Request: fold
Amino acid sequence: MQVLIFPNATSLAQKSADLVESQIMTFPDTVLGLATGSTPLGLYQELIKRHHQEGLSFAGVKTFNLDEYVGIPSNHPQSYRSFMDENLFDRIDIEKSNTQVPDGMAENPLEVGPDYEQSIEAEGGIDLQVLGVGTDGHIGFNEPTSSLKSITRVKTLTKQTIEDNSRFFEPGEFQPKLAITMGIQTILNARRILLLAHGEKKSQAIRAMVEGPLSAFCPASALQFHPRTTVLVDEAAASKLTLGNYYKFVGEMQDELVRKHRPSDWISR
Ligand code: F6R
Reply:
């Protein structure tokens, strides 16, 4: 895993946007895997800005979202479809028909997973997957003890996740306890992974993910198996890392290597 540590969430968002932008500029028909939640908002705002100010185009881009709640319609303000439309898709030039979010209102939610896997495969797989991480180490909604080989399916959310996300629901409002999520294997199939985290609240999960044992108890630790994962964290999220200074040193050495020998190893296809 490559770990990049930034002084704050703004510089982290800018760097992650640089990486997504170079991917799209090189492959305008890039297939992106996207996340919801507060973590990628800075990235999305930066991409929207670049679309308006610099003409960054998403006209050929296709997207697959990680997850969706079961039991709330796509036009519900808390659905992940609404989140994506509001915070990204409606504000760039992407074709809405090229954006996919699992269907949380399917008559049989158990059938959604295999279809979603097929759709991803039909597009040639995900080139670049954007991830956040839960305080319990989940990625997508793969909660602790999810199979490291799992594919898209229905998952029961933990009390911790329900509590973390309760801030988005009105008191007394129905809050889903189930979600459809890409599996850990689905995520590992992506050619490139970009995991973002900021804030002290994420520091324990980041430590377990980067330095902990590979364990289904911390689903994000499965990324240790992925050969091209970049973790972008701010100082607060990096604060529990044992080898924080080493990752900074690696960053400096890599910059030097890239300067000397190859312009960029970032682009993926
Ligand atoms: C969202 C998702 C989740 C979030 C995680 C962190 O699509 O899959 O894994 O990335 O729960 O959420 P935030 O960013 O709100 O802290």
Summary: The mean pLDDT is 95. The beta strands are 2-6, 31-34, 62-65, 67-69, 99-100, 128-131, 153-156, 178-181, 192-197, 229-234. The two ends are 19 Å apart (CA to CA). The first helix runs from residue 9 to 26.
